[in-house]
Amino acid sequence: MDARPWWQDCVIYQVYPRSFQDSNGDGIGDLRGVIARADYFAWLGIDAVWFSPFFTSPQADFGYDISDYIDIDPCFGDLDAFDDLVAALHARHIRVILDFVPNHSSNRHPWFLESRSSRRNSKRDWYIWRDPSAGGAPPNNWLSLAGGISWEYDTTTRQFYCHSFLKEQPDLNWRNPAVREAMHDVLRFWLDRGADGFRIDAIGCLGKDAQFRDDPLNPDYKPGDAPFMQHRLVYSANGPQVMDFVAEMRAVVDAHSGEHVLIGETYLKPKELAVYYGTNLNGLQLPTNFNLLWTPWKPGAITETVAAYEAALPRGAWPDWVLGNHDQSRIASRLGQAQARIAMMLLLTLRGTPTIYYGDELGLKDVTIAPDQLRDPFGVNMPGIGQGRDPERCPMPWDETPKGGFTTGDPWLPIGRNGPGSSVEAQRRDKKSVLSLTHQLLALRRREPALSRGTWSTVAIEGDALAYRRALGERRFTILLNLDDEPKPISLPDPPGALVLSTHGDRRTIRQRLELAPNEGLIVEA
Ligand code: NOJ
Q1: H-type helices in 94-215, by residue range?
Q2: How far is the CA of 79 from the centre of ligand 1 (A)?
Q3: Residue 64 C-alpha to ligand 1 middle, in angstroms?
Q4: Distance from the CA of 395 to the CA of which of 262, 315, 375, 470 falls in 20 to 30 A?
């Protein structure tokens, strides 16, 4: 029997529930809609779905502001729909990963309503309250990741509360053991209901400095960067105590029967990221590795990122990779649609657990949103740094009809279409589409463990062409990627074996010295 945990030989697919499938015509995706699309996950060939939050929420930050951690927001469904969703996915051998938002609740959560009601309330210390500095100024210089400062003054009790994001998202006080216990109960609630793991939101924000020291200025800040980047987040986040909190969460999920995964939202360079695996791997199993997001799209830079990350991993730690999510401009907009296919081939042939953001398998691009249709509060708070996060959150185009098969009502954001032929229905019919390519890549990865577990090594770099090897025992593959839209020659050190998969689907022969077509990627037996 294979003793490997399921989350290692696994491809995760991220669903942004508002935008996946609407079942009741209100223009917002919901859980019954996801159930109706369960066969799509099975056909595509992914192993787990991570759902952005669908818990009870005033939706100030579209679900990342939770007012009841153990219920479903009516716009998404109810607990019965949740149970049916788990059953539908488990019946197809697909795991369910929930978004756990420990750093902050909604300002309408009953805990916060109590906390702000009086300084003597028993829940006062469940949130982070501080006296004003001299002259009534905020307690320190911390900046909110959603724009503005991290402090909101409460006139009733004459103290400031801390919010790392919107003022509607007050930060919980993780130093208070009662808060930790309540949040552990949330984990237990969903484990009992069938969750297979959690993606932990803004995990670093739990590590706040006990002395609330000012963050230092960031010398690398450039105009146009998000305002919070004016500081280095040295004291407002990622302090050492966060690892104690993570180890406790890990103990909670490990104590539950079965094997459960903890993924963390960790925007960190490899060495800092490695810390989140914990002492003797008692932390997160998969601290999210975002490093490809800020790597220049050049063979040398990509190779350096892979090597630096592999080298930083603690012994026994398992790697993971992402190219996008609901907070980032889509990969097809960053690199262009032709390169997005190469990016998918890269993502699905790196060692470790990849996560695909919904719609990236269609090569979807960001959608331009009319200024009066902006929905994302971050975009509204931080004008001048793009359109916020709406462009990458648009509804899934399932078919070629005007509403894309997503809803019968008015979609909450415009349908995320690139143009005719970009829907799931059209791309499933087109054997050369990026969806068909993703489908084939996933099937190959499932058949060939060398692609998920095998060792990784660079074979050749020539200009914009990259070749690397994945090897597990006798199974060895060379992946050749042209990162440019011009033809690129490349030579392999050994005569190549059979061609297994190609982005363009029209190559017949492979030679030791070959010319890659523009934006071409190949997988060959080595
Ligand atoms: C990170 C989430 O990914 C983002 O969407 C959210 O706005 C913040 N955390 C606050 O929860």
Answers
A1: 110-117, 177-192
A2: 23
A3: 6
A4: 262
Taken in order 39, 45, 48, 53, is the CA torsion positive or negative? negative
Dihedral pair phi/psi, residue 123, rounded to 5° = -95, 5
pLDDT, tens digit, 9 for 90 and up, residues 20-61: 999 999 999 999 999 999 999 999 999 999 999 999 999 999
Helices and strands per DSSP (H, E), number in the chain: 14, 20
Strands (E), 353-402: 353-357
Contact 130, 160 (CB under 8 A): yes
Looking at this protein, which amino acid is placed at residue 268? L
Is 265 marked active-site?
yes
Instruction: Choose, from 171, 196, 265, 392, the residue flagged as catalytic.
Output: 265
CB 151 within 8 A of CB 137: no
Strand partners, 478: 469, 524
Tell me which of 22, 30, 168, 201 is the catalytic residue.
201
Find where tokens 């793009």 sit: 386
Q: Is there a contact between 523 and 349 (Cβ–Cβ < 8 Å)?
A: yes
CB-based contact 103:201 (threshold 8 Å): yes
User: For residue 56, which of 119, 113, 106 has the smallest C-alpha distance?
Assistant: 106
Q: Which of 42, 43, 41, 20 is nearest to 31 (CA)?
A: 20
CA gap 418, 248 in Å, rounded: 44
DSSP state, residue 394: P
User: Is residue 30 packed enough to be buried (19+ CB in 10 Å), middle (13-18) or exposed (0-12)?
Assistant: buried
Residue 201 among the catalytic residues: yes
> Which residue type does 20 have?
F
162-176: per-residue pLDDT in tens?
999 999 999 999 999
**Which of 201, 267, 268, 355 to probe ligand 1 with, by most ligand atoms within 8 A of CB?**
201
Q: How far are the Cα atoms of 51, 129, 450 from residue 29, in angstroms, in the given order?
A: 12, 36, 37
CA of 452 to the centre of ligand 1 (A): 29
Torsion, CA 44, CA 50, CA 56, CA 59, rounded to 10: -80
The answer to whether 20 and 332 are in contact (CB under 8 A) is no
Amino acid occupying residue 74:
P
Residues with CB under 6 A from ligand 1: 61, 64, 101, 165, 201-202, 265, 326-327
Tokens of 220: 């690398």
Q: Which residue has the tokens 């095998």?
A: 454
**What's the pLDDT tens digit per position in 87-138?**
999 999 999 999 999 999 999 999 999 999 999 999 999 999 999 999 999 9
Ligand 1 nearest-atom number relative to CA 327: 5
